TrEMBL record:
It comes from Streptomyces uncialis. Its main location: membrane. This is Membrane protein. Residues 66-276 form the ABC transporter substrate-binding protein PnrA-like domain. Pfam families: Bmp. The keyword Cell membrane applies. Keywords: Cell membrane, Lipoprotein, Membrane, Signal. Gene3D superfamilies: 3.40.50.2300. InterPro entries: BMP_lipoprotein, Peripla_BP_I, PnrA-like. Residues 25-65 are annotated as: Disordered.
Length: 371
């Protein structure tokens, strides 16, 4: 969201309508690498490591003298937020290393496999899938036209691991409980009892986000109410704005637009009413000139995790068949930041994050109401 549009990269192709430095460090303790069972099938020759396999010749796995990354996204890669972060990291590496980039966004999950096949036919070295909604695309990894292609997916809560791809995992309860805790600190400060949550389709993961967020809020304000709206579309500003106005009329004192392209539109309305807002994935504590203002940055953007994978890919160490786990309080990302903390709010949030990372707070039990 806060990232400026980067200059075009040579070879960049955008097909609309189709559907941290630290985090790039190689880690042996955390993020945790979880291997898949079995051996790699299909694709390029591989070198077996303790966990997973490295396609021969990384990053130029097809040996044609150039490196091409194909990016697949179900969302709008110009949303200034979650989906754009994934593309921003791709562009950054392409620009710095003279790689080429092909982007296909707004992909309907029903067409994911065919879009992956199309990218394979364009001789890409790595297909990077920005969200697990497009996980079906991975089935193309063993097809003849995709031989020699490395695969990465931002798996979120996880895609069934096979030897053919690598993924990054994060955990809803960790990030969203902490986000709710931060929102609860704000509610306590402003005397509010209602928080708003606006998202797109009414899906299981969206409900899980709401549950963890609500639990975090109530850990600070036990009798707080969470007003939830599911608009059916992450990018439809009209529907999101209608929900925001309705929530504000009901007296919400902090609002969470867990959206894509409609995020800033909701936050702009909240800013006019003086109601604090949270980000859905990116760090926007430093506002752009003339832009919207956020009170809390909830950082779990796929681009942050992808940066680590791209660094490994460049160095020829990106392993297929493993999942890398990213944990709040253990790794640089995910994290939650209060943009303008008051009193001891920052210290309290830091302590919560530390307790989650150390295991002193079992956040899954907290979300389930077992403590």
């Amino acid at each position: 969201m806060r990232r400026k549009v980067l200059r075009a990269v040579a070879g960049l192709v955008i097909a609309p309508g189709l559907l941290l430095t630290a985090c790039g460090e190689t880690r042996t303790d955390s993020p945790k690498a979880t291997p898949a069972a079995g051996k790699s099938s299909g694709g390029a020759a591989t070198t077996t490591q303790a966990d997973g396999t490295v396609p021969a010749g990384e990053p130029d796995v097809n040996g044609d003298g150039k490196v091409v990354i194909g990016v697949m996204s179900p969302g709008d890669t110009k949303d200034k937020g979650y989906y754009q972060s994934f593309v921003d990291e791709s562009r950054k590496f392409a620009d710095e290393n003279d790689w080429k980039l092909t982007i296909v966004d707004k992909i309907n999950p029903a067409t994911a496999v065919q879009q992956a096949r199309n990218l394979c036919l364009q001789r890409v070295d790595l297909i990077a899938i920005g969200a697990s909604e497009l996980k079906d695309a991975l089935s193309a990894s063993t097809e003849p036209q995709c031989k020699g292609v490395a695969w990465y997916i931002s798996g979120g809560q996880g895609v069934k691991q096979t030897p053919a791809f690598t993924q990054s995992l994060d955990f809803i309860n960790e990030s969203l409980y902490a986000a709710g805790y931060a929102a609860g600190l704000i509610l306590k400060e402003n005397g509010g009892k209602k928080a708003g949550y606006i998202t797109g389709p009414d899906l299981d993961f969206a409900r899980a986000v709401a549950k963890a967020y609500k639990a975090g809020i109530r850990s600070v304000v036990p009798d707080a109410e969470l007003v939830e709206n599911y608009t059916g579309d992450f990018n439809d500003s009209g529907k999101a704005n209608e929900a925001a106005n309705a929530q504000l009329s009901q007296g919400v004192k902090v609002i969470y637009p867990y959206l894509g392209g409609a995020t800033d539109s909701v936050t702009r309305i909240a800013n006019k009413k003086g109601v604090p807002a949270l980000t859905p994935g990116t760090d926007r504590c430093t506002p752009e000139p003339g832009g919207v203002k956020y009170a809390v940055s909830v950082v779990f953007s796929p681009g942050a995790y992808f940066a680590g994978a791209l660094k490994d890919f460049k160095e020829g160490t990106l392993r297929m068949g493993v999942a890398r786990e990213w944990h709040l309080g253990k790794d640089p990302v995910p994290t939650v930041k209060l943009c303008e903390p008051k009193g001891d709010q920052e210290a309290k949030l830091a302590k919560l994050i530390e307790d989650i990372g150390s295991g002193r707070l079992n956040v899954d039990d907290a979300v389930a109401g077992k403590r």
